[in-house]
Structures are given as structure tokens and as C-alpha cells.
Amino acid sequence: MLEAFEDALDFSGQVVCVTGSGRGIGETVAASFAEAGAAVVVADVDVDAAEETAETIGSEYGTETLPVEVDVSDYDEARALVETAVAELGGLDVLVNNAGVAGARRFRESDPEDWDRKIGVSLYGTLNCTHAALPELVDRSGVVINYASSSYRGNDPGLAVYGAAKAANRSFTKTLATEVGGDGVRVNCVCPGTVHTPATEAFVEQYADELLDAYALDRIGDPADVASAVVFLASDAAEWITGETLHVDGGYLRR
Ligand code: ADP
User: Fold this and answer.
1) Which residue, 60, 75, 100, 129, is most buried by CB atoms nearer than 10 A?
2) Is 215 a catalytic residue?
């Protein structure tokens, strides 16, 4: 059984696209798939970060990596991303919709521009890339991994809009899974709690005590905690799991 599990985590010959993988959680997710043998598309709106990450993980794990500049909130750019991946790497097996824009702001102090940015990247980014990738994923019985966030429950003041987008991702995951299961495509979601990244550094420092109180396992997450869940859900070890949201949150207590 363990040998089969290990084989299932071997992504050799597969092409994996991770959006928002120039830095943060996405970077570690991309590196984990490279370590597992996949060719990895490092897609990010920050092309310098994408190029640097692609170079670093390519040389570390000896797999093919392809940096692509994309704004996932734009449908045409999402289509171009998929076209480039297929043209350069021959197809697409796994799409990880990791790109997101957080940033706490009380709803009364927010404005439509802020909503557009958060919903544009965190929700529309997921819809755009998934819609663009589906024909390729159907071709290869592929997998989509979406991202919710602990804030989808509506328990985090300041994250109303971000949380709403993440709740939508969770619902979208389930419905899409029912629509494309018959085509051999699985769709799952990870729901991370607070994770140490450059983007969360200041927030984590400011709220360190409250944060620790909120996690049953007495620590906040690392990008690798999320990456191992994503790789598992994308792998054949999860071949009978679809429409699911896996909470990767150290037992977040504000559920
Ligand atoms: P996290 O803590 O969730 O990892 P980060 O801000 O560290 O958040 O990383 C998010 C990544 O998503 C960054 O590399 C960022 O450039 C990327 N990103 C943000 N907006 C977009 C977008 N519109 N299209 C593609 N990538 C994006």
C-alpha cells in the first residue's frame, strides 16, 4: 500500500500550472510539484518573481519550468496562459488556482475598486483559469485545485470581501466537480488558515498572541503545510476525492 502511495505522488510526465507562484505559498506549491517530478508552469502577474522562482526550482529539482506573466483576473490572459503551457510543455494535467489578493479593510472603508481587485483575482482568477484550462484537463483526466481561506466562514473582521470570494470558490469547487466528474476531471479545494509568508509577516507580528490562541495546534502554518495538501489532492492517492474542501488550518478554533 505504501509503495502505491509513493507511486501516486510521482508526477513525472505531468504538467502542473500554479498561479501566483512567484512567491509565498504558491512558490512552495510549485517547488513541491517540481520535487515530485512535474514540469511546472510558474504563472504570476509579477514576471520577475515568476522568472526567479522558475529558475530556482528548475535548477534545484532538475525539472522543466516555464515562467509565464499573467493577470489571472483577465480572461484573455488566462487563455493565453493555458495556450502557452500547452504549446511549450505539451498539455496540462493539474491547474492550481493559488493566486489571490488579501489585505484587511473594514467593509465601510472599502470601495468598489478594492472589491474588484479582491474578487477579480481570488474569484474571477479561479473562474478564468479553470474555464480556459478545462478542455486540456478533460483531455488528460486532469485536476483543478482551488483555494478557500479560513475567512470564508465570515469570522474575520476586515476580510468580508476576500472571505466572500473564498466562500464562492468553495461553492464553485463543489458544483464544478459534479459537472465534470463524468469527464474524468477532479476538482478540490484547500482552505488554509494563516500561513507565514512575506505577505502576512506584519499581520502575524501584530496579532501573534491572538493568532496562537486561535489554533488548536499552537502554531500558524507554513507554506509547506499547504503544499503537501495540494500535492496530495492533485495526486492519484486522492483519485476518489472530488468536490471536497480540505481545511489546512491547524484546527482553527473560530469555525
Ligand atoms: P500568499 O500569502 O497567499 O502566498 P502572496 O501575496 O505572498 O500571498 O502571493 C500571492 C502571489 O500571487 C504573488 O506572487 C502575486 O504576485 C500573485 N498575484 C497577485 N495578483 C495576481 C494576478 N492578478 N495574477 C497572477 N498572479 C497574481
Assistant:
1) 129
2) no
Q: Is the ipTM of this complex over 0.85?
A: yes
Can you identify the CATH homologous superfamily of domain 2-244?
Answer: NAD(P)-binding Rossmann-like Domain (3.40.50.720)
pTM recorded for the entire structure: 0.97
Task: Please state the rounded mean pLDDT for residues 209-214.
Answer: 86
pLDDT at 220: 92
Which of 61, 147, 152, 162 is the catalytic position? 162
Domain ranges of the chain: 2-244
Q: Cα separation of 148 and 164, whole Å? A: 10
Give the amino acid at 86. Answer: V
**Distance separating alpha carbons of residues 173 and 166, to the nearest angstrom:** 11
- Which residue's entry shows cell 506573466? 69
Is the minimum distance from the CB of 146 to ligand 1 under 6 angstroms? no
Give CA–CA dist 244/12, Å, rounded: 25
